[in-house]
């Protein structure tokens, strides 16, 4: 019973409920929100944030961070454009871009685990480095003439219906990451690392190696998203995805993952991503500017960390008062 | 080295050995080599106009970096500075275009006040909300930028709407030094002095070295932390006024992405992200180095696109160097202990 109660009071449950409420209200109250056309746009809009948020959740659960993801995405997009200009086939370019992302992630992983540098500083550095390299590779131009059967697949729907093709990819990856995090010993070891890296090390978990591979996966996913982004807009550009890292971190924290590590769930994160994307989409349909939504995003982010803290401090004050009363009686 | 200074009860004294050992020496050497090499391959690099441009470009980032250094030294971070600059620049530009008669001092004070209020909000959320600074300032970065956008919409304040004396401020000089540069020098020098020689400065270092120990030692952690965030915000606000005066055209996007340059300047300048070490004038030098690299690339006819990649590589190099120093200090401390 108390287990259920604790689960119900958890932040991720609140955020999932809030997301459902927002989706229902928007479908009923906002014209065109519930249409199948808008559903396709909504899925396409949340795709990059959601995919990048999956490995980011793992990394933040272990108490680290990766701010370089959006720059990795941009560099993968630049490489894609450059290779296409060199005349390579799209079938060989796509795996190369994903591998390039993994290599960039490996560099992050090496700097963080091999040299023991703080991940925040390292990935601020590679954020600038990878974005710079993206500019070096492709300059400030764009490459646009990607084959239609690929760009059309990314923006298209299954059989011309209302379910976007990319939703299959999103669901598949989300399920894989969810099962790994919540149903395997590896997933549990991530929480152990985040709660206390030293204790995890002494209990036989290979902390450094685990973190290294998380960065590799994060880079590979960012590379994949770079490809999808390029195909969606039919445009390879060095500045693709600029600023996305902050939206991803915001969504992950909003989903109830603690920035200190050791806490959080993937369903919460998915709700966080959907909530942000649905709000943005609904407000845009209402002609509220996307920039004004920055206020909502920022406020939600701060509140998602602030409110649980306030709740805890109120609860502990009550407890203390009750104890004191019990002592005086 | 710098970490050890925090625990010394007496004032740090000037000595040649000490200067040679500081981390800032590395930046000075890098700067000297870069300037010498660039000047030899293209003498125009050291012309009056070119030097003046470099100094003017450095001034705005250096003012923000001084505030950021104070926050980073306490083991926090302020990612909202770019948005605070935008909010302050738009506020002041709107005010000056509506009231052209207002003196420059009022503009500077309003900028400081807008930024200070933003910094106070950050500090309160970090200290009393117990929310990590990274999350708070990431959130307020969105919030302040959103406020500016919903206020400004798509409109901008143009140079021809601003009073002449406001625009001239950026170029006018005092003793042949542009006011902008003079203000940056005063800010970096003043904050350095306080951090180095005054009790509150040493307390901020102590808070960054060990937050728990500082609390136990009776340091007024709340007051100091709020102060650090207010300083960072206020200086970002001041930078907003300088930005508006220098560029004349201000829209809601002013200062977007500056937080990266500022954090880069601070980290490259030798301030450790774990807090507790580094100097404010080092951060100022970091800002100068980044600007000089930008101009040198242009002068040397190297693709401008390399600039950001070099900045990134420099940040990583700087943290590697920092780590090396920390490992060495730890080793030498262990050695000392074993002889006791």
TrEMBL record, chain A:
Keywords: Cell inner membrane, Cell membrane, Membrane, Transmembrane, Transmembrane helix, Transport. It is found in: Cell membrane. It is a multi-pass membrane protein. Its main location: membrane. One of its GO terms (cellular component) is plasma membrane. InterPro entries: ABC_transp_permease (IPR001851). PANTHER family: ABC TRANSPORTER PERMEASE PROTEIN YPHD-RELATED-RELATED, AUTOINDUCER 2 IMPORT SYSTEM PERMEASE PROTEIN LSRD. This is Autoinducer 2 import system permease protein LsrD. It comes from Actinoplanes friuliensis DSM 7358.
From TrEMBL, chain B:
Its main location: membrane. It is found in: Cell membrane. Keywords: Cell inner membrane, Cell membrane, Membrane, Transmembrane, Transmembrane helix, Transport. CDD domains: TM_PBP1_transp_AraH_like. It holds the Pfam family BPD_transp_2. One of its GO terms (cellular component) is plasma membrane. The chain crosses the membrane at residues 25-42, 54-72, 104-126, 133-152, 172-195, 225-245, 257-274, 281-300, 306-326. One of its GO terms (molecular function) is transmembrane transporter activity. It is a multi-pass membrane protein. Part of the ABC transporter complex LsrABCD involved in autoinducer 2 (AI-2) import. Probably responsible for the translocation of the substrate across the membrane. The complex is composed of two ATP-binding proteins (LsrA), two transmembrane proteins (LsrC and LsrD) and a solute-binding protein (LsrB). PANTHER family: ABC TRANSPORTER PERMEASE PROTEIN YPHD-RELATED-RELATED, AUTOINDUCER 2 IMPORT SYSTEM PERMEASE PROTEIN LSRC. This is Autoinducer 2 import system permease protein LsrC. It comes from Actinoplanes friuliensis DSM 7358.
